[in-house]
Amino acid sequence: MGALQADFYARPVVEVARELIGCVVEHAGVAGTIVETEAYHESEPACHAFVGVTPRTKTLFGPPGLAYVYRSYGIHAMLNAVCEPEGVGAAVLIRALEPLEGLGEMRLRRGVVASREGSSPAELCSGPGKLAQALAVELAHNGCDLARGPVRIYEGSGSPRTVVALPRVGISQAQDLPWRFCALDSAHVSRPRPQPALRAG
Asked: How far is CA 185 from CA 50, 99, 124, 151, 197, in A?
């Protein structure tokens, strides 16, 4: 698998969010397939870039293909991929992964053991805070190049996934935009899980 290059991300953020489903994130000896994403764009108020360039948001306006990592509620790191041409504030939030490599290490980082609730592969990375913890992604990775690392995203190697488009979750503004994308066949996505009747094409 080859790492995704800047030109992959230098496109409309909604397109990138859909096409990241099935790609692979790798860091610090563990890896997982992306099964859920959300798109965010400076034109809508749920995006951090909506307020313009600030010390917190300047990475969002940088070159496409950078990692934008921030801390949610002062607790969880969130991994995003910066998209669109430089100067446009947009990114894709990686919301859920199917673990591929390093399951034991992921459990250690998440603080769970195999016999306890929440330790199943389907629960380890079923949310953006969970997956960042499992991947050992921290604020220090903000601004890193996703093609060169240390956090990398690779093109997918499996069969194409059926993708559904849904409203984003956990936000209070621009809730009607169907910018959340999920692999329909995956048990690893976060809740609420998509219904089989919904398809994004």
From this structure: 33, 15, 17, 26, 12
Name the CA radius of gyration of the chain, rounded: 16
The answer, as to whether pTM is greater than 0.85, is yes
E strand map for the chain: 24-27, 30-41, 67-72, 76-82, 90-101, 152-154, 163-166, 180-183
Residue with tokens 């610090």: 28
Question: Which residues 6+ apart lie within 8 Å of 117 measured at CB?
Answer: none
- Return the residue matching tokens 């690893």: 188
Report cis status (omega within 30 of 0) of the bond before 160.
no
Could you tell me the two tokens for 84? 């669109």
Q: How far apart are CA 45 and CA 99, in angstroms?
A: 32
CA angle 142, 143, 147 (to 5 degrees): 115
Q: What is the DSSP string of 89-117?
A: -EEEEEEEEEEEE-HHHHHHHHT--TTST
64 DSSP 8-state letter: T
| Full set of structural domains in the chain with CATH | 6-183 (3.10.300.10)
Give per-residue pLDDT as tens, 52-111: 999 999 999 999 999 999 998 778 899 999 999 999 999 999 999 999 999 999 999 999
CA 149 from chain centre, in angstroms, equals 16
Indicate the Cα dihedral angle 126, 132, 135, 140, nearest 10°: 170
